[in-house]
Input
Amino acid sequence: MYNFNFQPVFENLDLLGYGALLTIRMSLIAMVLGLIVSMLGAVAKTSGIRPLRWLVDVYVEVIRNTPFLIQIFFIFFGLPAVGISMSPDTAAIVALVINVGAYGTEIIRAGIESIPGGQIEAGKALGLSPVQIFRYVVVKPALRNIYPSLTSQFIYLMLTSSVVSVISANDLASAGADLNARTFASFEIYLVLTVMYFLLALGFSTLFAAIRRNFFSYPASR
Amino acid sequence: MNLNRRLFTTLAASALAASLTAPAMAADLAAIESAGTVKIGMLVDFPPFGITDMSGNPDGYDADVAKALAESMGVTAQIVPVTGPNRIPYLLSGQVDVLVASLGITAERAEKVDFSNPYAGISIAVYGDSGLDVADKAGLSGQSISVARASTQDTGVTAVAPEGTDIMRFDDDATAVQALMSGQVKLIGASNVVMSQIAAATGDRFNKKFDLSSQVQGVAVAPGSDALLAKINDFVAEAKSDGTLDAIHEKWLGEPLPEFVKNPK
Output
């Protein structure tokens, strides 16, 4: 019978709390930058410019068809060979942004393509400028349509960030691993980590739901 | 029924206790010499000390030492693969006469088995770019150093590192080495075993900065095998002086037998 001993975990809750903060910070930065990359990617993919479309196609296919672990290794250990050297924490964020950007590009592209052509023509008929049409007639309804897919991708990004300790970046999982190396209370530590990741995911869900209520709660015909 | 079960449990427990406290079987040198073979236990999962070669035979530093030992005794070596946890029980129960199994000499183990003088050793040290000047632990300040998380070298580096040292912990030695080779860190805490593999790949790009700790390994025999142990110590002394151990160390670890093994404190 395994004897539970949560003592070492509770004594070091500040360590785990700090790790959780690092995970939240890293995820938020990666989500914001990832959203920008996804938007640019989606716009490039739906634009008529062929070479640009091909370029984004290559990016999306390469990233979506290779493991994240390999991508992060490549960025941290491979890029110094061509003179690009980043700190582990920066490399982790770059890897997360590149990864979520590829998935986000496809999700937002689907959203943009879901806007019927008639809606854009209606915008033109109302005398809106091309920028206004893009912003209010295309992007906003598009984001509203794919909001659940995009936010679950973001939550998945937060959970995926737990592997960044392989390049010695600091986050909640690495805080747990360090604590484990000192106290050997593996089961207790990982149980607490599970609960903490779950609460983080729940927190992000709540945040996303609040954003949705504020920005996308206008009535729609569909 | 209940009583029977209790009786059985008691018997089984006392049998187990008896087997655990049974006096160790001392190995008899004369018996080994008349049989013409010495049974030598060694690890086969601890490169480069103990490995299995392409055709499935034990090979490595320990295997070469075992063969040299048998040769000096004038008998043939019968190598028995053992594992980390079972190597001392194998020796104490007489299933092997001798252990050449990378057994680190510790006070705790010395209570159970008799050790020869050291024939090998593993040292943990800080290594790094040859151009970098880091003479001691104070030089670590402001540097980044990679280690395998929770390893002996992690403990060693963490214990001596001054404020301002960036200790980067990776999942294993391979990744920590990768960080060094790709230039993400300038220093690494690693064992001489790992460093010999790095040196094989990179030449003189990295060198040793300072030692952290070392552990010597001895040939072990069951307590009371004094004649055998004396013979083994003669062999170790001779192999150290005639260059046999240097050659074996050179073959598997890329450098002659280190000073801390040759002349232990």
In short: The radius of gyration of chain B is 22 Å. Residues 20-122+216-262 of chain B form a domain with the D-Maltodextrin-Binding Protein; domain 2 fold (CATH 3.40.190.10). Chain B is about 40% helix and 25% strand. The longest strand of chain B covers residues 114-129.
